[in-house]
Amino acid sequence: MVKDYVILESDRAVVNGRVLEHETAGSAMLAELYRAHIADWPKFFKMDTLSKVGFVASELLLKELGETRHEGEEFVQSRAVVLFGTTASLCADRNYQETISDRDNYYPSPALFVYTLPNIVTGEIAIRNHYRGETSFYVVEKADAAQMAFHLSCAFADTVTESVLAGWVDSRHNDDFQAFFTLVRRDELEGLEDRLKTIMDNLNI
């Protein structure tokens, strides 16, 4: 049985097979889940949609795992964050474009421009959890379990990394997104591709 995973889509949130209750959908659902299950990271409301999706999914997973939050000057060198997606920062790009497309109403937003890089979501997660391992975001043509398993295995090539917070994060619009997160440990690489396929079968990728 596959365990330790979170699935997040525009209208549902699933943690290890359990469906979380919510009354809203899309971006409103992300805010609802944040308030119900996290509620202690105000920076969340300044994030773009891709980062919000990744942040909420990672928080739900880490909470399910019962991991202790690292604070102060304590950092985790052995935890990497490796994510995949197809649309990259497209959602944030579109939002930013709206601020510069009209010459008569031209208001370029630095707050939006910051998020026109897809790897910002890995940084948000690493900062929140004091991770100092590898952080990578792979923009791929499609979700491919074999390709993902290969890159995740490569993350363990060094002698420091012991686990990888891994997943798929995609957002086409503010109310159209999908993600899954799981934790991959060094001793769990065998059968990783099949494990990823099992989780992905529950997503409309």
Describe the structure in your own words.
Helix 6 crosses helix 7 (192-200). It is globular, with a radius of gyration of 17 Å. The chain has one domain (5-200): 3-Layer(aba) Sandwich (Peroxisomal Thiolase, Chain A, domain 1). The two termini are 21 Å apart. The mean pLDDT is 92. It is 34% helix and 21% strand. It is an alpha/beta fold and 205 residues long. 35% of the residues are buried.
What attributes characterize this protein structure?
34% helix, single chain, Peroxisomal Thiolase, Chain A, domain 1, alpha/beta, 205 residues
Could you give a quick summary of the protein structure above?
The protein has 205 residues and is of the alpha/beta class. The protein is built from seven helices and seven strands, in the order βββααβαααβαββα.
Low-confidence stretches are none
CATH class: Alpha Beta
End-to-end separation in angstroms reads: 21 Å
Query: If you compute it from the alpha carbons, what radius of gyration comes out, rounded to the nearest whole angstrom?
Result: 17 Å
**CATH homologous superfamily assignment:** Thiolase/Chalcone synthase
Please work out how many helical segments DSSP would assign: 7
Q: What helical percentage do the residues reach?
A: 25-40%
Order of helices and strands: EEEHHEHHHEHEEH
Strand line-up in the sheet with most strands: 3-2-1-7-6-4-5
Structural classification:
alpha/beta
Tally the beta strands. Answer: 7
User: What would the average pLDDT be, to the nearest integer?
Assistant: 92
* The CATH architecture: 3-Layer(aba) Sandwich
Major sheet: 7 strands, mixed
CATH fold call: Peroxisomal Thiolase, Chain A, domain 1
Q: What would the principal axes of the Cα set say about the shape?
A: globular
- How many separate domains make up the residues? 1
Query: What portion of the residues fall into strands of 2 or more residues?
Result: 15-25%
